[in-house]
């Protein structure tokens, strides 16, 4: 209290605590604004991904277990959580896998831009007829078990390179979406797809 008493004497004032509180609030507000600006301009956050819809139209393993025919369409979203920086995505390579085995027929999504705090939604399609596949014995067993139910657990993976606006670093990025899909049957009502959160894998490098 001695400090404030001396200060009041020097300033010849009544030590109005209300004014002190107001100035304190102003200083805190300015400090908070500076912190927000630092976060907005200096810190970047990776996108958030979800699988919003997906349809499995064909999924058939040949009797020899060496080839597979499949057709999957999906709608995915990438949300840019950054307040200030937009994101430029390079072309996205799309691959499908079952029981840890990746199929040989990839798909692609053209390059696009995602503005700050916006969500980019796009469709992907992967498929092929009589494509070579090397399922392990447990993989074949799992396929037959899931084929009995008409529901399959597959994984959709997208690989790309992104670049944050205002930065030169190009950052490799992978999006992994585990999907439980019901094989479409015209005579049976399909189960509604449940929106699924995807995993983001990004490079651990400066600027990413």
- Termini gap: 50 Å
Structural class comes to alpha+beta
Radius of gyration: 27 Å
CATH top-level class of the largest domain? Mainly Beta
Q: What's the CATH architecture name of the largest domain?
A: Sandwich
The profile of the biggest β sheet is: 8 strands, antiparallel
- Shape designation: elongated
Strand content: 35-45%
Which fold does the CATH topology of the largest domain refer to? Immunoglobulin-like
Low-confidence blocks of residues: 1-5, 30-35
Helices and strands in order:
Layout: H1 2-11, H2 17-42, E1 48-61, E2 67-79, E3 87-89, E4 92-98, E5 101-102, E6 107-109, E7 112-114, E8 119-132, H3 137-149, E9 151-164, E10 171-182, E11 196-197, E12 199-202
Antiparallel strand pairs: 1-2, 1-11, 2-8, 3-7, 3-9, 4-5, 4-6, 4-9, 9-10, 10-12
Pfam families: LEA_2 (PF03168)
Transmembrane segments: 20-45
Domain Late embryogenesis abundant protein LEA-2 subgroup: 75-166
Q: How does this model look, in words?
A:
24% of the residues lie in helices and 44% in strands. The protein folds into 2 domains: 14-43; 48-202, Immunoglobulin-like. It has helices at 2-11, 17-42, 137-149, and strands spanning 48-61, 67-79, 87-89, 92-98, 101-102, 107-109, 112-114, 119-132, 151-164, 171-182, 196-197, 199-202. The longest helix is centred in the first third of the chain and has 26 residues, at 17-42. The protein is of the alpha+beta class. Strands 3, 4, 5, 6, 7, 9, 10 and 12 form an 8-stranded antiparallel beta sheet that branches. It is found in: Membrane. InterPro entries: LEA_2, NDR1-like.
């Amino acid at each position: 209290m001695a400090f404030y008493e001396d200060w009041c004497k020097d300033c010849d004032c009544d030590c109005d605590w209300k004014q002190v509180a107001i100035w304190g609030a102003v200083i805190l507000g300015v400090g908070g604004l500076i912190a927000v600006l630092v976060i907005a301009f200096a810190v970047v956050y990776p996108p958030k991904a979800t699988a919003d819809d997906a349809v499995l139209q064909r999924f058939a393993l040949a009797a020899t277990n060496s080839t597979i025919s499949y057709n999957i369409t999906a709608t995915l979203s990438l949300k840019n959580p950054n307040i200030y920086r937009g994101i430029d995505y390079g072309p996205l390579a799309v691959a499908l896998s079952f029981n840890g085995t990746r199929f040989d027929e990839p798909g692609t999504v053209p390059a696009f831009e995602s503005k700050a705090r916006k969500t980019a939604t796009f469709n992907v399609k992967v498929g092929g007829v009589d494509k070579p596949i090397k399922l392990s014995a447990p993989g074949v067993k799992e396929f037959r078990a899931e084929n009995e139910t008409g529901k399959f657990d597959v994984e959709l993976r997208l690989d790309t390179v992104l670049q944050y606006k205002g930065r030169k670093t190009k950052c490799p990025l992978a999006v992994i979406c585990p999907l439980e899909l019901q094989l479409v049957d015209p005579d049976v009502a399909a189960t509604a797809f449940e929106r699924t959160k995807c995993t983001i894998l990004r490079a651990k490098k400066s600027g990413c």
